[in-house]
Design brief:
The chain is an alpha+beta fold and 127 residues long. The chain is built from 1 helix and 9 strands; from the N terminus they run H-E-E-E-E-E-E-E-E-E. A hairpin with a 5-residue loop joins strand 8 and strand 9.
Length: 127
Amino acid sequence: MLCYGGVTNIRYPRLFETMMSGPVGGLMGGHYLGKALGIENLVCSDMGGTSFDAGCITAGILPIDREPPFMQMYVNVPMLDIQSIGAGTGTYIRVDRRPTASSSDRQRRGNAGAGLPGNRQRDPDDL
């Protein structure tokens, strides 16, 4: 899946165009499902281990950004307009007794999947 919704094979000379292919595939699937159900306005999301990505389909039209920012740089490749935040299932937020909040990325600490069934929960600060 290419970042603007096309498909390709491994011999494609511009494989960098596959960035964000997972969330793009979800938005394309949402567009297909919306057309099949007669729904023109959708919000589609993709939650992975390290990020939460969302895109909106308005009036049945997929949003395309001609020069999207990616990793704090502008890329001269059209991409479906998907917004990302770095807070997926591997991230947790802890609120302590003081009025503060902190976040941590479990995967960054080498404890990927700690929240999955069958895995013993441990406080990442104890690792």
